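Ticket #4471: structure output looks truncated?

Reporter: J.K.
Steps to reproduce: submitted the chain below (843 residues) through the standard prediction queue, then opened the result file.
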Amino acid sequence: MAKSSADDAELRRACAAAVAASGARGEEVSFSIRVAKGRGIFEKLGRLAKPRVLALTTKHSSKGEADKAFLRVLKYSSGAVLEPAKLYKLKHLTKVEVISSDPSGCTFVLGFDNLRSQTVAPPQWTMRNIDDRNRLLFCILNICKEILSYLPKVVGIDIVELALWAKENTLTLDNQENNNQEGRETSVATQTERKVTAKVTVENDLVSQAKDEEEDMEALLDTYVMGIGEADAFSERLKQELVALEAANVYQLLESEPLIEEVLQGIDAASATIDDMDEWLRIFNLKLRHMREDISSIESRNNGLEMQSVNNKGLVEELEKLLERLRIPQEFAASLTGGSFEESRMLKNVEACEWLTGAIRCLEVPNLDPSYVNMRAVREKRAELEKLKITFVKRASEFLRNYFSSLVDFMISDKSYFSQRGQLKRPDHADLRYKCRTYARLLQHLKSLDKSCLGPLRKAYCQSLNLLLRREAREFANELRASTKAPKNPAVWLEGSNNAGQNGSSADTSTVSDAYSKMLTIFIPLLVDESSFFAHFMCFEVPALVPAGAPNVNKRRSGANDPDDDDLSLMDPDGNDIKPDNTSVELGTLNDALQELLDGIQEDFYAVVDWAYKIDPLRCISMHGITERYLSGQKADAAGFVRKLLDDLESRISVQFSRFIDEACHQIERNERNVRQTGILAYIPRFAVLASRMEQYIQGQSRDLIDKAYTKLVSTMFTTLEKIAQSDPKTADIVLIENYAAFQNSLYDLANVVPTLAKFYHQASESYEQACTRHISSLIYLQFERLFQFSRKVDELTYTIAAEEIPFQLGLSKTDLRRVLKSSLSGVLTSQLVPCTEDCRRH
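Returned output as attached by the reporter:
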């Protein structure tokens, strides 16, 4: 037998892959073969049959369910890859019919009882040869008998021939299947045996069916008694009867010619009627085709209308949602356009702002479908909301500006808020902040609606509160100066007599620095708190302005019932806290606003510094230390104006102290004019007292300021001392010795603890030693001047004459030498050397 595609293992594997790719699980390909698909009428029209692959698959269930069998039609894709085309269930197979119009007998039709359209002819399958056809049909019948337990009706093929073909080819098929199944497991072999058994069963059924028909035919023939004996006699008898019959028929035909003509006429009429019926059938077929097209068009339109109905329903729902977004509640519209801003109405105003913010956000692209953005209704509603926003922002801004001004004016007009004679009043802004907090949420919503409106509001708040702060600082500073008891006459440190200077410097002026410290203690925390409150109240996105761990700052302990607990953390319109960015660009804008808020208050601090300087300039040291402590507690990026104020105060204190040092240096330089001064200069002991007092006032990091003052004062003192000493060369060294010795004696204790003074102490010691050396040298030269002259003359003559001749020169004899020695040494020990030694020992 010729090689068949049913034996192609590669084809079976491709079919199995296509079935698995379609998502079918557990299906096993039992049989596959290549066929040609066609529909008889299309082949007559010249259309070519399409190549297909038929695959019989079975699915065995392990859960007790019935086994299933399928007929899969596979087609070739553009890449010559098999892909599923159609699926038929064999349980619906009712008929297998071989087309009689095909003389080769290779074309057949499979009839299923569940086809959707019975008017469409089922597809015709054409095999390559009779063997392939029988092979496929036999496999179908085999699976139906084995799995479905029934056989479909077979039409157009002799069952006996099919059974005989099956019997002849069973061995061949079994051998081929066994060859294909080599290497499989025992379960697969058992399945193959089951298939062979099923094939034998089908053959027996077909043979038994043929035998039954043969027996029925014999029974039918037995009903007729023909008296047949020998075959030759029977044949002769049939010939004679046939001749007699033909002769009788000739006469009968001649006699029945009119009847034949009548029959022919009837046949012609029937033929015409049949032609008419054929024409009518063609017309009806055409009309039916048109009706089918109309029905298909109607179904298409119905599907379109149904889809349109669904779409319209969805569109109506979307439009209803959109209309709900576009609707403006009357109560919110009334609050936004003409509502009052009284405290009792603020909750409704805030709700209206929240609704307006949400409504505007809902009409923006992230929250609204882009296809709705350019709709006229959306654009008109957006314009209406913008108009509402502009109106509300304008009304709220005007109200808040007037409210800030009226609130501050009321506080300024009430004198009980400020310090009065005999009573220092600490500024208290708790009531002011409480009233402002009522409108904090309103400001946050104004920022979200129109950020540009905050500029004028911040300016109005700064101007109003600046008047209040300046008034409070001025009244407090005036009363602070008036209530502080301090000496009226300022001390003069480096001028005048010793007793007067010391009495002037002994007065206690600690109340002056205490007053300055109280000024900072009261107002620096106040200014920091006001800066922090302003930043949060006016919706600046900056970090907290109150520095942690600031010294001498009266921090409020936060509590549930604290009236000054400003719950003004930034929130978005949904009520969530906004975490400020430490690098916010608004920090510069905030510092500019704080400059306007607190500008002018520094003048009252300057007045306290100047007042303290006039009473006791040395108090600049303690004030400088106090200011440095506050500066160290302020962050570089927090409360910018407060830090700037402290920097300016520190600079002003340094300038005032430098002014005092310059005046002291000027007083020291005045001593130069009196060139006849002798003994210890007045500013030497005074400087020791001044240095001791300065060391007592040092606080914090003021050491650099004091060291610079020491350097300038001592340098001026030493320079002036040198100039005074040079005015009288005879007593210059004595003046230097006395004053340097006095400087060391007066600063000995301080030099041990102050490195800068220790440096000048060593400088004075070196200068003292140099002055002593010069003074002793001058005394020796003055006393032994004649002896030195005699020695020079002797040295000069050694160059011109011999040494033996020098005693014989005039004035150089031994007698002259004795006379010079006697005059030089007489009274030296008693009159000059002993008093000089005592002076050196005394200093």
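Triage note (M.O.): checked the attachment and the full token line is present. The longest helix spans residues 257-326.
Status: closed, working as intended.
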